[in-house]
Amino acid sequence: MSLLEVNNLDVRFALRRGDVKALRDVCFTLDRGERLGIVGESGAGKSVAAFSLLNLIAKPGYIAGGSVRFDGQELTGMSDRALRRIRGHRISMIFQDPMMTLNPVLTIGEQMIECLKAHRRIASREARAIALRKLQQVQIPSPEARLDQYPHELSGGMRQRVIIAIALLLDPDIIIADEPTTALDVTIQAEIMALLLELCEKHNVGLILITHDLGVVSQVTQRMLVMYAGRVIEQGPTREIINAPQHPYTQGLMNALPQMATPGERLNQIPGSMPSLDNLPSGCAFHPRCSFTQRADGSERSACHSQVPEFVTSGNCRVACHMVTEMLERERIPAEETTR
Questions:
Q1: Is residue 163 part of a domain?
Q2: Domain region containing 146
Q3: Residue 43 scores a pLDDT above 80
Q4: Does residue 141 lie within any of the structural domains?
Q5: Coiled-coil stretches, from where to where (predicted)?
Q6: Is residue 144 part of a domain?
Q7: Which of 13, 30, 81, 247 has an alpha carbon 20 to 30 Å from 53's alpha carbon atom?
Q8: Which tens digit of pLDDT belongs to each residue from 265-321?
Q9: Using one digit for the tens of pLDDT, what is the confidence trace for 274-290?
Q10: Residue 225: strand pairing partners
Q11: Nearest 5 degrees, angle CA 287-CA 288-CA 293?
Q12: pTM attached to this predicted model
């Protein structure tokens, strides 16, 4: 049994004009110590998926269906009091902006000690010693002095290291990192990701990394999910998806990387934009932007416009695409004929 199992997760936002489906039938698992990446454009549903795991969706959002099981416990119907024993304790979260996460009127030490005391019966001196050890683990220089400083006195990279130290305070089983390096420059981004990877490997902590950066995903994660318009459209081993993406959207993301363009030419891009969740296209949500809705012989794949594609297994990956389904079907029929 996997440490985390998400099945058919459905998240909606209740608006005056009707419910908007932010997530549809999201399914994935995470084993202990495994690193999973979730990628996609802005609006794909990556952060909503992460917040849903701990039922942190703010109203008018709500979990409309599905299951989130952590270590055998169902989280979707769990009371807030019971969830507080898991949030920050067994599942920690690293948010995009450390200045929005840290309290500006409390010192770093006060915030770390407060976090420890919220989950454990512990003396202040012992809590401070644990906080100091965690700051040392994330390689913050002069950690004793940092405990008595305020967030505004630290650089962006140091603040993000503090956030990682707080996430590790209670030795969690899973860390959810939501765009953890967005506001940092490239050099600091690399340092933070290398640190996060090292800590997860050393302590056997599962990692869910949410990002739009395929380069980071390829270096840090073992498996990845590609999301589009609130639905997972491709998932499998990171190396296989990066080297041979099968869904047209994943192919478009890969082709949009700067290194994929010819020097001196315009960068490749996926035409159009992510559809509004309250006005999704019929059939495959990606079909208005997809160049593969038309077959090689010029005929249209009507299923792309009318049917939501089901997942099919292709190699070690699962893909929701009518084109891939047709391709696998063509491969299957000759194989059956040769065995007769």
A1: yes
A2: 99-169
A3: yes
A4: yes
A5: none
A6: yes
A7: 247
A8: 888 889 999 999 888 999 999 999 998 888 777 788 889 999 999 999 999 999 999
A9: 999 888 999 999 999 99
A10: 38, 235
A11: 45
A12: 0.92
Q: Which two tokens stand for residue 144?
A: 């004793």
Q: Give the count of domains, the chain.
A: 1
